[in-house]
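Hi F.,

I've been meaning to write this up properly since the lab meeting, where we talked about keeping a consistent format for the predictions we share between groups. The idea is simple: the sequence comes first, exactly as it goes in, then the structure tokens exactly as they come out, then a line or two of notes. No screenshots and no reformatting. I'm using this chain as the first example so we have something concrete to point to.
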Amino acid sequence: MIANYHTHTKWCRHAKGEAEDYIKEAIGLGLKEIAITDHVPHIDNSDPGRMMWEEFEAFNQKLDEAIEKYQDQITIYKGFECEYYPEALDFYKKCINNYGYEIMILGQHRCGKDRYYNAFSNMDETALKIYADTVCEGLKSGLFSFLAHPDVFLFSYPQWDKHAENALRQIYQTCEELKIPVEINGFGYYAGRPYPSTDALKISKEYQLTYMINTDAHRPELLYTEKTKELEQLIKDMGIEVLDYLPKERHITKAIR
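Output, unedited:
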């Protein structure tokens, strides 16, 4: 791995370390590029697993300071991991247009009316269809650089079946059509979660996709580990090629108004 585009800091309340700690770790590892992509805040502060809306300015200032300090040693990008919530898109666009965020990850954890369905707690057959429709709508918005952990719903969906397969086929088809890279999630592998799923990866090979391995690191020391190397070998053995870098055309430098 020479670049990683999915990291979280202590500001999201379920990770550790500041942006500077991840940047220093990346430099020590010899990485060429890193993106700091914490969970985007929402004005209603409804999700405790992300920074508070009122903290954004302070977070952004510290991130800018870290980038300025280390920009001669490594390429650093500002980004966010986001759900596709239509009511939040104006803020996403503001982050891109006004604050210079350009690695916008679609990582859909919740979906449905009032965000009822949660990938980590209550996914069922009905939820899978809503999840797939929501992800595909988000991908078509033009606001996202790549799709994180498309199979994250397997954390709470009890089995690999036709409903899980159909949801992912719908998503993979959209990624193929739009040429949007698909992430193979290193944190899920590190933590022994049901994703990344080899069943999902096998059917993904039926589509013309580009892939990235990102570690989704929640602590600086998890930016690149022996488990990451193990995952890289597994993916290689499956005959899946991964991108070294996120292509420049997938950087979101100007939001659709």
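Notes:
The beta strands are 3-4, 33-39, 75-82, 103-106, 110-111, 117-118, 146-147, 182-185, 211-214.
The chain has one domain: 3-250.

If this format works for you, I'll send the rest the same way.

G.
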